[in-house]
Amino acid sequence: MAYKITDACVNCGTCEPACPVGAISEGAGARVIDASVCVSCGTCSGECPTGAIEEA
User: Fold this and answer.
1) pLDDT by residue for the chain (56 residues), tens digit each?
2) Are 13 and 29 in contact (CB under 8 A)?
3) Cα distances (angstroms) measured from residue 37 to each of 8, 10, 21, 29, 56
4) Distance between CA atoms of 20 and 8, rounded to whole angstroms?
5) What is the per-residue DSSP string for 6-24?
6) Cα distances (Å, whole numbers) of residue 39 to 3, 10, 24, 44
């Protein structure tokens, strides 16, 4: 199951370079995860300082 970024995202960008498959990009005011690319490894979730990334 892919991960998603919640409204708690402050758009700090910490998660983007942590993603091993490049599924995270900058959206309108927050980062977004492309569910079709996400491999559900959870690396991004562990890097997020606000806990804004969770399993979808």
Assistant:
1) 899 999 999 999 999 999 999 999 999 999 999 999 999 999 999 999 999 999 99
2) no
3) 22, 22, 7, 21, 14
4) 22
5) -TT-----SHHHH-TT--E
6) 9, 23, 11, 11
